[in-house]
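stage 2 :: seqdesign
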């Protein structure tokens, strides 16, 4: 919890308002932040989009990106984050898509793809993507991925909490 409190304080100091676009984590990124008092000033909204159709309909993910790159890819995570940011008043979007088990023989269990998009004051964006593999059972992987997504915010923005 202390980690999340530090991240929340960092976000407050830097006037960051978050929108999430979550697939595998199914809202856990937003939920982790919501555990901290005052999270209403940090969390604008959260999209949970499991199916390819929901990713396309709710966030504008290009079907060709899904077909060419796979649902578990940094390219899809990037489009999810950009789509969420475009559809919100937030200035920071975090997205996650991945697998926890052997549902796709081409992708190792625990593979998680992330994107972070920081909207600058001039309207430009700074985009980061990353793929990580977490060990454990299904929900351990999901929880680790959610925590990782939030902990990376200060590092990717270029400073520490």
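stage 2 :: out
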């Amino acid at each position: 919890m202390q980690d999340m409190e530090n991240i929340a304080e960092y976000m407050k100091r830097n006037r960051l308002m978050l929108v999430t676009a979550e697939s595998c984590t199914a809202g856990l990124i937003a939920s982790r932040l919501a555990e901290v008092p005052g999270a209403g000033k940090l969390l604008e909204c959260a999209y949970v989009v499991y199916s390819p159709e929901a990713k396309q309909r709710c966030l504008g993910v290009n079907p060709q990106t899904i077909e060419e790159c796979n649902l578990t890819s940094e390219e899809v995570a990037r489009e999810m984050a950009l789509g969420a940011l475009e559809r919100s008043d937030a200035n920071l979007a975090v997205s996650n898509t991945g697998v926890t088990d052997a549902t796709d023989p081409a992708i190792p269990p625990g593979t998680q793809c992330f994107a972070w998009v920081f909207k600058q004051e001039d309207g430009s964006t700074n985009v980061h993507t990353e793929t990580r593999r977490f060990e454990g059972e299904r929900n351990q992987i999901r929880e680790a991925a959610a925590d990782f997504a939030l902990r990376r915010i200060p590092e990717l923005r270029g400073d520490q909490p």
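stage 3 :: structure notes
- Helices lie at 2-13, 28-34, 52-59, 63-69, 74-86, 138-157.
- The chain has a mean pLDDT of 95.
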